[in-house]
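Write out this protein's structure.
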Amino acid sequence: MHKMVKKSNSILVVGFNTRPLAFSLNKAGYNIYAVDFFGDLDLYPYVDDYIIVIKALKSNYNSLKEKYSIFLAQFALELHRKHRNVDFLLIGSGLDDAYKEREKILDEIKSFNTISVNNELQVIKKSRDIKYLLEFLKSLGYKVPLSFSFENFRLLNANLEYPFILKKKRSAGGINVFKVEHEKKLTSLIRILEKKKFIPSEWLVQEYIEGIPVSCTVISDGKECEVISINRQIIGEKFLYAPKDFMYCGNIVPAGLSIDEEKIISEISMLLTKELGLQGINGFDFVLKDNYPYFMECNPRIPGSIRASESVLNLNLLDLHIKCFIPNEWKNIKKLIKSTIPKTFATKLVFFAPKDIEKRILSKINNLEFVYDKTEPTKDVLKGEPLCTVLYVAKDYLASFNGAKKIINEIERIIG
């Protein structure tokens, strides 16, 4: 029997960037224990105890960015052993495809009363099987990008025009996604990848859909679901110094699309939520080409746009996410989501260091209004590392985007 959410509930949050999650959970009255990669300055006021990966390992982003999931899991076990009576476990980004690591954590909490407020492992695996999802949507008459497994692509000499996309079947935050413009680029790319254990069966060749990247955030109790928001995705932007072409750099919520576009996006997202049996809050990525959404991937966890959605809806979505795992709460959740209409727009921008930045100027950046995920001024920030996030809310789409951009200009002026 699950216990109802009482005021002093405790939760273990594990993820690459737990600050936005901790912020909302703290507001909802939870005691929070966090395993976090960066340990941003503005995480600490909201948590009761924590382990920070780069501090614990005395390392940095660049050395760990390929293998941090192992450490997130290891420290999750460690923190849980210290706080065994914690009520809930929430896994954010950073463990999307780390099934072995997830299993370890879930096995650990089984013998205690900690409730996992995450999708089940089988559900996550199914959600990350892009071939299966594309075929499922195609069979229902939706347009999807042409995709081949990399092995078959080589065998078939598949008829795909340049440019196309080479991406890992499971890629988080746009890290293992490459645009291939010609044969030469493909050859050199594979040479680079082969140095890092390139397993062809793990890679996908996909038609390049040029258009507007958008995402859809959905909430579900495992049976019924509702759309929370449709969001514009900001990907690989030069003005934010994204180190990779497809790097996630933020969102604008709501996306400001036409009713027809929103209708198909909602339809596909709700269809997949039910087909996969997703629970809680999850995200779906699309690219809009000629006003039509091409499905890209499913993120079976709370998406990075969550704080922007919360800001415009004025709802504590993290609290609602947890309540999706508690019996008899769905009716209330559904009513809240249905009755909330966004009256503002929120822009979230992730700013990456354009060059090495001395620690002495970090405080100036951290003191700016609308700046979050503040880097602790204890060591220099290396070029390409995420420096901070800007979140700016305004009455209309452009005012929110321009307001956020103004803060970015301010940061650039400080960096000089």
